[in-house]
């Protein structure tokens, strides 16, 4: 399976976010711990309230919050807490109705409930835990020997977030300073990779703004990132707004103000744009720019940065190729090909004759061949000759028209209003010494 550039970052981020909710604690620490997550505190409030309502029926419960140790099962945890094996096993059987106990991970906190100790014995009443930020699971005693399980799910809603910033050293840094999650920044960069050469087009002082969604629970816990709904990149003062729009036949895409799809047959930046190094001031560099001496475009990026197929096509050459080092050439149609050089290694399934889709990872940045440092050397070839990528613009030609265009124009107004409304409470990413504050502009070139 090829990894498409769109999916992985989001999943990784969500996974990281979820992992972050559960505080890993030293294994087998059997002491009582204080509830740490919102949900645990809420569970405790519910319990206290229940105990208050029916003081005679529900005396104070002895709660012990434990942590699942590395390699431990729920059975290990319960028997370790002195729950009789037969009771532990019927409680675990009841749990299976709502949750697979094998999914419990090391570090998961589990609260075990007992009746207060009377004499030498104390009765096991059940357990509770919060496997992820959107639900809690509990097992409660039912009668003398039985247990029953239940789970409570939290509603997740979409919250709009507005962000904006000034690009000083890199787009990634500007996004991070504005508090934009990495997965959202990656989506933003991907959307602009058709139009923008992130190595040469960005200049200090350029600005971005965007409106995106976040998935939140009622207590405000962020459980995932949604889509970028609107974005704008102002390069050298020229605004390039894009809007997310769903057509009547259900396709979702980004369009410019005129209703033209932003997609192109070739990406302008065929690399993970967030990882481009020293993106500024390379436009007129005699070696690094496009010139007769150097028939390609270089993207400086750390070794290992993923390289994407600029467009759909067939790999017609892959392997070491003289001064180019590890090299791939993709044929996109009878006329146009793209080539990628100096790779540290190829993606696992990059092979001659293999089909690629735009955005597939074909290899990784390296310094093989005749080079002084790690970078991607990228060429666009027309009829077998290197040409300036700028001279090749292959729009998909999709343009909204008629009623679809009218609906899109309404979407533009709604999104722009949402952005302004949301920005009302926005904390602008201001960093001391931005070019603007020094009074310089692009025209005076600081
Ligand atoms: Zn080069």
UniProtKB/TrEMBL annotation:
Q: Which cofactor does it need?
A: Zn(2+)
Any Gene Ontology CC annotation: cell envelope
A biological process from GO = proteolysis
The protein's matches in InterPro entries, at most eight in alphabetical order, are given as: Cell_wall_metabolism_enzyme (IPR050570), Csd3_N2 (IPR045834), Dup_hybrid_motif (IPR011055), M23ase_b-sheet_dom (IPR016047)
Say which domain of life the source belongs to. Bacteria
For the Csd3-like second N-terminal domain, which residue ranges apply? Answer: 163-280
- The answer to whether keyword Protease applies is yes
Kindly state which keywords UniProt assigns to this record, in alphabetical order: Hydrolase, Metal-binding, Metalloprotease, Protease, Signal, Zinc
Q: Which residues form the M23ase beta-sheet core domain?
A: 292-389
Q: Name one Pfam family in it.
A: Peptidase_M23
> Which compartments is it annotated to reside in?
Cell envelope
Keyword Zinc appears in the UniProt entry? yes
Return one GO MF term.
Answer: metal ion binding
Q: Which residues form the signal peptide?
A: 1-28
User: What is the protein named?
Assistant: M23 family metallopeptidase
Q: Which organism is it from?
A: Azospirillum doebereinerae
